[in-house]
Amino acid sequence: MNILQTADIRELFKGGAINLKNNSAYIDSLNVFPVPDGDTGTNMNLTVTSSVKEMDAVTEDRMDLVCEAFARGALKGARGNSGVILSQIFKGMSQVMSEYAEVTTKIFARALKNGSNAAYDVVTHPKEGTILTVIRLVSDYALKISTKKKDFIEFFDLLLVKGEEVVKSTPEMLPVLKKAGVVDAGGKGLLTILYGMSNVLKGVPMQELSPAEAGQEKGEDLFDAPDVHDLDDIKFAYCTEFFIINMKKKTTLSDIDKLRDKLNNIGDCVIVVGDLTLVKVHVHTNNPDKALGYALMLGELDKPKIENMLEQNRALKKSREERKEEVKPVSLVSICNGEGIKRIFTELRVDKILEGGQTMNPSVADIVGLVDSTGSDTVYILPNNSNIVLAAEQARELTKAKLVVIATKNIPQGITAAINFNPEASEEENVEMMRRAIRSVKSAQVTRAVRDTEMDGFDLHNGDVIGIYDRIVAKGDSVNEVAREVVAKMVTDETAAISLYYGAGLEASVAEELQAVLQDEYPFHDVMVYEGGQQHYFYYISVE
């Protein structure tokens, strides 16, 4: 098999998705930290599931549309850092393969390399020994062998041998993996996708699971949601959106720039992004016919959408009158779980809350939906989890509002940031105040180990209660005793307040007992206890 047609590429992507789903639980188990947030396989699976869903919606037998849909679906469904990085790999691969009606091993190797470059571009400080290392070394090897190996089956056989070699070496590149005795979960997930593709080429059967089994979520499609605009003062009546595809041979990048200038002359809110493979256009104008006409001079139209904003305005005014609701110019949104935690954020004037956190990272599309639902021009978001920050950053590309990401990595940081948020302050002032506040708070968690391992000087067993303060600092059988040990490492002469947020697995009386003990031990500190209701964690602890 020396040539892959569009139908083959579809099956290749589907095979990778099925194999990833069938092995996602194993990939989850490779999580380095022995806490219940080992969701790399789940995040990658949900990302690829979204890709396949988007790809299946393409009925035309065209390589560019299929690849672009797969990449677009990955970005929409990207969850966690592993999902976002994977979406960028698919984006880079799509850019190369979309240029051809047929794919050879040389083209596929170039696509892998472009995917590697796109993935590295999205990570500020890439670490060796991760999925980034795997895609880089595998793609480099793919380029090397593609000049001699024309047959895809032989090509993939060699690629998988190289991939296994790289994945097995990740513990030597990243000491934390070596200590935990595991390979990188993201790298293993990527290799699992490549194995699925190879299985398709060889005709090895893989059981395709139902959407419910595959974790496919129901809900409104991000790109089917109605556009949200400031409709109170409309100068241009028609919101016009479309893609330009199949550019004419004479079309140049300069022509795309000229299109932007032409649209600015007949409307406002102009967005023209893309290159000679695909351009997305958005404009508010009174002459949508002219906008479409200008675009036809460059190429073909795809997915045109024209909305009457005057009619939308009438409906919006009626809705506001019925609900007596006014859209804020600036909103604050948060991602968290636990009824108590949600209640705290609501009391701190957080406008919208998205369910999410450990083991349930929301997708980029979920975050965009949350942000757009506020109707605000500017939205500040508190991810409250290090594995959600990157997805929030990626949501900037899709949301209609100006999205300001305050990179809170845990709930105490999020609460502190919310306390210091001022909707009337400038963006610069808010960012400075909230980031300064985050730096002043010490955060820790008490949970259970979910597997046997050795880490941070502790011999851990499944079920041990562990305390985490930047690293594992305590273990034992008693939740409150471990929490006491953790607090002892956090309190200093400069601190004055201890806050305990107890989870769904604890009774209030147990948390109050700990509060009393800590108040006796630290009489010059204010010790406060709150119902958090969070899953998986007995306590979130904050010391300020």
Tell me about this structure.
This protein is about 50% helix and about 15% strand. The chain has about 550 residues and is of the alpha/beta class. The strands form 4 sheets. A 6-stranded mixed β-sheet has the order 13-12-9-16-14-15. Strands 2-3-1-4 form a 4-stranded antiparallel β-sheet. It is flat. About 45% of the residues are buried. It comes from Candidatus Stercoripulliclostridium pullicola. One of its GO terms (molecular function) is glycerone kinase activity. Pfam families: Dak2, FakA-like_C, FakA-like_M.
Quick summary:
The chain is an alpha/beta fold and 544 residues long.
Overall residue-averaged pLDDT value:
85
Strand content: 15-25%
Order of the strands making up the biggest sheet: 13-12-9-16-14-15
Q: Count every helix, treating DSSP H or I runs of 4 or more residues as helices.
A: 19
Termini separation comes to 63 Å
The tally of strands reads: 16
InterPro entries: DegV_domain_contain (IPR050270), DhaL_dom (IPR004007), DhaL_dom_sf (IPR036117), FakA-like_C (IPR033470), FakA-like_M (IPR048394), YloV-like (IPR019986)
Protein name: DAK2 domain-containing protein
GO molecular function, one term: glycerone kinase activity
Domain DhaL: 7-199
Question: How are the elements arranged and paired?
Answer:
Layout: H1 6-29, H2 40-56, H3 63-77, H4 80-97, H5 105-122, H6 131-146, H7 152-173, H8 175-180, H9 185-202, E1 238-245, H10 253-266, E2 267-274, E3 279-285, H11 288-296, E4 300-308, H12 309-323, E5 330-336, H13 339-347, E6 352-355, H14 364-373, E7 378-382, H15 389-395, E8 402-405, H16 411-419, H17 427-440, E9 442-448, E10 453-455, E11 458-460, E12 465-469, E13 471-476, H18 479-490, E14 497-502, H19 508-521, E15 526-531, E16 537-543
Parallel strand pairs: 5-6, 5-7, 7-8, 14-15
Antiparallel strand pairs: 1-3, 1-4, 2-3, 9-12, 9-16, 10-11, 12-13, 14-16
Helix pairs in contact: 1-2, 1-3, 1-9, 2-3, 2-4, 3-4, 4-5, 4-15, 5-6, 6-7, 6-9, 7-9, 10-11, 14-15, 16-17, 18-19
